[in-house]
Write a structure and sequence with these properties.
By secondary structure, the protein is of the alpha/beta class. The protein contains eleven helices and 14 strands. A nine-stranded mixed beta sheet has the order 3-2-1-4-5-6-10-14-13, with helices on both faces. Strands 7-9-11 form a three-stranded mixed beta sheet. It starts with a strand and ends in an 8-residue tail after the last helix.
Length: 318
């Protein structure tokens, strides 16, 4: 009999792709607080869905009691940097209190494994409310590990290409409507990887839980300067781009491993890919020597940028 895997934020871009990747191995249940999105997610994935608002512990309790999940992937979040600056209360309710509610119920219902989905914006130096809220989630989950039989881990990564509200989806809409793409920071650099790579990182954390528990797992990721993506876009697809006003909370570069985390981070390989395991309070024997930032990592080539631009994931069924 298959184990039950529950995905919070299961109606989101990543949640649905995780469901497609894992539904052969697990009985997957997707949860979200928007019932319209729940129905669309069910149609897209063929998986069971249930309404759940992570900011309400009673809602989480009801759902966990009903489905009794063995594994929980906690992907639900409010993730827009500018909105989190404007509406910090909602950000804290969802990303901090919501994560806490999931952890409490996971322990209460004897869930075997919890994987929290985090972001490069959570690594030091934290620049915005969204990053801070995710940093708190990482700390809570890693600290809760070892207190009970429930194993906790987190994964941390950069921009998932074509995810909801990502810069690529915004530019595509601008390009189609006016031919002019606006950029708040042509000089900014960002990590990019595909949704398949994002899914594989979660699976790596799950499959190696005895090693990843109580820690944050990240992986080698390439980066690109915003202007290089726009230049490639214009060169191959036409149109033009222009600088527009910046948004609150942005920073020039992102960090997958912050300088303060170096003594606590070691390098390891899963499936031949370089991964990084961050343990907040245990110094490691052979730490990495340089923090991984979008400034010093390997850059995406023009061909790789074009491959990302040309390959938005399959559209959802409406």
């Amino acid at each position: 009999m298959k184990k039950t895997l529950l995905i919070t934020g299961g109606t989101g871009f990543l949640g649905k792709r995780l469901a497609l990747a894992l539904k052969d191995e697990y009985k997957v249940v997707l949860t979200g607080r928007n019932n319209k999105q729940n129905l669309l997610a069910k149609k897209f994935t063929g998986c069971e869905v249930a309404p759940m608002d992570i900011s309400s512990i009673e809602s989480v309790r009801d759902t966990f009691r009903e489905f009794k999940p063995h594994v929980v992937i906690h992907a639900a979040a409010t993730k827009f940097v500018d909105l989190a600056e404007k509406y910090p209360m909602e950000c804290i309710d969802v990303n901090v209190v919501g994560s806490q509610n999931v952890a409490r119920m996971a322990i209460d219902q004897n869930v075997e494994v919890v994987v929290g989905i985090s972001t490069d914006k959570a690594s030091p130096p934290v620049r915005n409310t969204y990053g801070m809220s995710k940093s708190v989630m990482e700390r809570v989950y890693c600290s809760m590990n070892g207190k009970t039989d429930t194993k906790f881990t987190c994964v941390r990564y950069g921009n998932v290409a074509w995810s909801t509200g990502s810069v690529l989806t915004i530019w595509k809409k601008m390009h189609e409507e006016t031919g002019v793409m606006g950029t708040t920071g042509p000089e900014m650099r960002r990590f990019f990887f595909t949704v398949d790579e994002a899914v594989n990182l979660v699976i790596a954390a799950l499959n190696n839980i005895d090693e990843t528990q109580g820690k944050v797992l990240s992986r080698m990721m390439k980066a690109a300067q915003m202007e290089d993506i726009l230049k490639t876009w214009v060169k191959h697809k036409g149109g033009k781009y222009e600088k527009i006003d910046g948004r609150p909370g942005e920073r020039i570069d992102e960090y997958l491993i912050g300088e303060l985390e170096l003594p606590f981070t070691r390098e390891l390989k899963y499936d031949g890919i370089t991964h990084y395991l961050i343990s907040f309070n245990e110094k490691v024997a052979n730490p990495v020597s340089v923090g991984l930032s979008s400034a010093n990592t390997e850059k995406l080539t023009e061909e790789e940028i074009l491959a990302i631009i040309d390959n938005p994931p399959a559209e959802e069924v409406n």
